[in-house]
Amino acid sequence: MLIFKKMELEDIETVRPFFRYAKNRLCDYSIGGTVMWRDTFNIYFAIYKETLIMRQSYINDNIFFVPPIGENPLEALEQVRLWCAKEGVPVRLCVLSEADLGWLPNPELWRIEETEHWGDYLYPAEQLATLKGRGLAGQRNHINYFVRTWPDYRTERIDESNLPRVKELLDKYRREISKDSPLFVDEISGDEEVLEHFDAYGFCGLCLIVGEKVVAYAMGEVVGDTLHVHIEKADRSYRGAYQMIVREFARAYAVNGVRYINREDDSGDDGLRKSKLSYHPSEILKKYIAEYRGENP
């Protein structure tokens, strides 16, 4: 029988290797998509036959499982079914990609439902690194303004030398930006933890500097051929800072076989949706939940 452990910071290097098995490019199959949100979604995990099984509280605090990833996903799914039978709860899966729907055994026995507002915005890496094309003229205009106004700007990869100034920007952002959403509070808390435990997370990061002040930064990780952008913050008094960090982060880290950039979901936030659509994603990666309707002795 599966024995689950609450996911903690100390488990990063235990679970990280399993994400290489994910082929769907969803942000939920990454360290940033799990460890950063472990308290929000009450994430637990177990490892069965070299396969990672994650359990979480998802919609209406119901128990859901992420499709197992590793060497033996179907065997692990059967273990999930047995665990659910013992606990007397339905077998529910979350964050399934469209490809995962075809992987489900006995697909006719599953009730499938798309989860709104949770689709990930996916972009060709070259598109964000160049911002070429008529549709991205607005972003280029903001960048041109930034470069003209603050010609002494520079970028630096985030390390221990500039980390304190990055933290100062996050502190300023937290004081000035307020959203009526529990997810926003959890997001800021996760960002703070990443900066406090920079080495443990092992993210790649880039900051945009004017004079000696950090005015924007981004952090993320590469999984397969995809760069996942988990954190993106900027001082809004510096027009063009957001557009600059989007482009420069792509140029710095969308290399060595990285073909796509995932800028994650919009969580139903109208402002985020408008911003992410303005960069013209090539695809919004849909996510689904599934509930097993077959016999579960």
Record the strand order, biggest sheet: 8-9-10-11-12-7-13
**What percentage of the residues does DSSP assign to strands (E)?**
25-35%
Indicate the low-confidence ranges by residue numbers. none
Mean pLDDT: 95
CATH architecture of the largest domain: 3-Layer(aba) Sandwich
Which of globular, elongated, flat, extended, rod-shaped describes the shape?
A: elongated
- The SSE string, one letter per element, is EHHEEEHEHEEHHEHHHEEEHEHEE
- Termini separation comes to 15 Å
CATH superfamily of the largest domain: Gcn5-related N-acetyltransferase (GNAT)
Helix content: 25-40%
Our count of domains comes out at 2
Q: In the CATH scheme, what's the topology name of the largest domain? A: Aminopeptidase
Number of strands: 14
List keywords for this structure.
Aminopeptidase; 14 strands; 297 residues; single chain; alpha+beta; 4-stranded antiparallel beta sheet; 11 helices; 2 domains; 7-stranded mixed beta sheet
